[in-house]
Write a structure and sequence with these properties.
- By secondary structure, the protein is α+β, with helices and mostly antiparallel strands.
- The chain has one domain (3-84).
- It has 2 helices and 5 strands; from the N terminus they run αβββαββ.
- The protein has helices spanning 3-11, 57-67, and strands spanning 15-24, 28-35, 40-42, 71-76, 79-84.
- Strands 3-2-1-4-5 form a 5-stranded mixed beta sheet.
- The radius of gyration is 12 Å and the shape is globular.
- It comes from Marinobacterium alkalitolerans.
């Protein structure tokens, strides 16, 4: 799903949380949005159906903030924590 569609769904109160998950240790991060029904929505590139990849966690958190999230759940394997996005 594209960023503008996710932003509209966020404003409608569809999402419960936003997660940043590493693609691999060298490739970067991806964002997953969890709905209140526990369904997972991924952020896609604007011009294709491929998942959008971020080189840094800062880039991923900036997009999460732009969408409207105040908190970002970060998950690396079994390690999980919450970050306040600015």
């Amino acid at each position: 799903m594209q960023e503008k569609e996710i932003k509209l769904l966020f404003k409608a109160g569809v999402f419960d949380s936003c997660q940043a998950i590493p693609i691999s240790m060298s490739r970067g991060w991806t964002l997953k949005f969890i709905t209140r029904d526990q369904e997972v929505v991924t952020l896609n590139l604007q011009r294709s159906k491929r998942e959008r990849e971020f080189k840094s966690l800062d880039g991923a958190s900036a997009v999460a903030r732009r969408i409207g999230f105040d908190w970002l759940n970060v998950q690396i394997g079994d390690l999980q924590w919450r970050e306040k996005v600015n």
